[in-house]
Amino acid sequence: MAKNVEELFSLQPVVMKQLQTIFDKNRLAHAYIFDGEKGTGKVDIMRFFVKLMLCEQPNLNVPCETCRNCRRVDSGNHPNIHQIYPDGQFIKIDQIRDLVAEMKMMGVEEGRKIYVLHHADRLNIASANMILKFLEEPDGEVTAILLTEQMQSILPTIRSRCQHIKFQKMPRHVLLNHLQESNISYSMSCTVSMMTNELETAIFLANDEQFALARKTVLKLVEVIRQNVHEAMLVVHEEWLPLFKEKSEMEQALDLLLFAYRDIVSIKANPEAACTYPDMLQTFKEAALHSTYERLSSQMESILQARASLQRNMNRTLLMEQLMLNLQEGYTFV
């Protein structure tokens, strides 16, 4: 497996306990939906569960890792396991037709047959109807595992025939540990772990020069807002607007700005609070000392409303000028 059992438990303790209990009580269902965002460990835990179901010598509801079946699961060569991925945009009916034919054939291996549908929300209508019929009439000892990041896109008739396994977002402390193990600084790890819950995306952001510049520009703006509204306007026109030209870039920058003010609120409540910008701790402590909860709340509301105005395609220069005035005075954004 890509991750050992201890890592899987740290990532998804509830799911792991749920699957082990199912196995221990011999209550294996004929179909499961593994539902969770990207980066929540669905594929690694699916592999753990498949291996557990096929292992010749499981110990305390953990696969042995050394038997013939465990090794074949790892190598991807077990004849009783079939995995289907979208062919282009969809999982197509021919793929499901071939899968059903394979699953109904007399296999060379005795025991449970398992099929896995990756991105099961991308079944087209024809393939969804065919897999539904197979779910309703499983042939022998068969287990289906459907992986999805969009549970609501799967037909209700399919959902109702599967046991729902809900994956939670990766705990932030686990993501932080992975990022620091990837030689990313603690400060940057804290920031990107607020932007995304997915490890690969977080690593990309942490190593992206554009994101580093965005972070630096946002923090500079936070500092100058406290000093002088004219300085803040200068930073907006000379640095912010030229850097954040696309709507998505402006959205991200406003999110980073909101996190800064949220840090200040957290520090005001608890000087030892975990922050998005731990490298700004002293600066934010001073800001917290000289502000009130009411003003900070008003400033955060101003940022949220500015973000909403961005969605309505408000002129960005005007939007930022108004926001600077509101943040300087603590008024609510109009």
TrEMBL record:
Keywords: DNA replication, DNA-directed DNA polymerase, Nucleotidyltransferase, Transferase. Its EC number is 2.7.7.7. SUPFAM superfamilies: P-loop containing nucleoside triphosphate hydrolases (SSF52540). It is an enzyme of class 2 (transferase). It catalyses: DNA(n) + a 2'-deoxyribonucleoside 5'-triphosphate = DNA(n+1) + diphosphate. GO terms for molecular function: DNA-directed DNA polymerase activity. The keyword tRNA processing does not apply. Residues 241-328 form the DNA polymerase III delta subunit C-terminal domain. NCBIfam families: holB, PRK08058.1. This is DNA polymerase III subunit delta'. The lineage of its organism: Bacteria, Bacillati, Bacillota, Bacilli, Bacillales. The gene is holB.
